[in-house]
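In this supplementary section we document a worked example of the pipeline. Step one takes a protein sequence of length 378 as its only input; no multiple sequence alignment statistics are reported here. Step two produces a three-dimensional model, which step three serialises into C-alpha cells for compact storage. The input and output of this example are shown verbatim.
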Amino acid sequence: MHVVVVGAGVIGAACAEALSAAGATVTVVDRSGPAAGTTGAGEGNVLVSDKEPGPELELAQASRRQLPELLARLADELGAEQADVEWQPKGGLVVATTDSGPLHDFAARQRAAGVLAEEITPERAFELEPNLTREITGAVLYPEDGQVQPVLLATTLLTAVRQRGGRLLSGVTATGVTKNALVTDSGTIPCDHVVNACGPWAGDFATRAGAPIPVLPRRGLILVTTPVADLVRHKVYDADYVGAVASGEADLQTSTVVESTPAGTVLIGSSRQRVGFDDTIQVDVLRELARKAIRLFPLLAKVNVMRAYGGFRPYLPDHLPVIGPDPRVPGLWHATGHEGAGIGLAVATGRLLAELMTGKEPHVDPKPFRVDRQGLAA
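The serialised model returned by step three reads:
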C-alpha cells in the first residue's frame, strides 16, 4: 500500500510515521518543508489540562500515554541523539487570580474523566513556582502536562519514515486528487490513498480535491524572552485560557500562558484571532501578552524580549479535528483541524488514522472525528 501524506507538519509526520510502522510505503509532500507552517510556530504543548471531558480529551489522554513509548521506540531505532525532541514531562499549573470556583469545578469534571488534577493551595503553588504573583486565589496542578520542541518532534518522525524507505518531497505543491493518484505542480504521484494533513490550508486542498471542509486559520502570536535562569518551572497559565481555547469568537482573545524552554528562554502567549492569513505581527497584541504575563510573573518586567513570532492554527467550528476517510472522494483521508492542540494530539491522531486505513481496531472511538459528522462537510 502506497500512501501520500500532504503536509510535513507534526500531524502529517505522525500519520506518516504510524503508516510506515504499519508497513505502508509512504511519501510525504510539502510545498515548503518539514515543520515550516503551524508546527514551527507552536510552543510544543502536550496538554490534558485545557480540555473539557469528551472526544478531544480522550484523544489527548491517549496521545499523552503513547508519546513516551513512541519516543523510546524511536530512540532504539534512530539512536538517542537523533530521537531527542526535548520532551519535558514537567507538569502544568493552572491558577486563578479572581474567583477560583470555575477552575475547581472544571478540575472536578476532568478528574471524573480520569485526568490527574490536584487542587492545591496558593502556598503550595508558591513552593512550586516561587516567582508567581501572590495575587492568585486558587491553583490546580496537572502532572500529566508536558512540552516538546515541535520542530524536533516533526523532523524525528519524518526521519523514521525515511529510514524505513519513505520519501519526503519538499517544495512540491499538491493541487488535486484523481483516482489512485495525487496531482502536484511537479507531476502526478500514483498511490492508493492521499492524506490531507495541510493544517490551516487543509480547507483549500480539500476543495481542490473535491471534498470541501470548513477549516479556517486562527492566528496566534508568541513572545520569546532572552534566557533567564529558573524563573518558570512548569507550564503556567491563567484559568481563562481554557475559555479562550474553547471559544469560537473571531475577535482577538488573549490569555496568559508562560513557560520556559531547555535553552532558558521564556515563551509567553497566547492570542487567538481569526484574521484570515494576515501574518502581520501586531504590536498591540504583543503588549497585551506582555502585560498579562507580568501580572502572573512580576519579575518578567525586568527580562528583555528577544523576538516574537506567529502562526495559524487550523480551526473547525465544532472544535474537533477531522480524522479518517472522506466518503465523497474514494482514497482521500483527512487529519486536520486540531487548532492549537496538534502537538499534543499528533501521536494518537497518526495511530488512529493508520488503524482505520489498515482495518485494525481503533484505540479511540473514531466516530466524533468523522468528516461527515452533522453540519461539518456541508
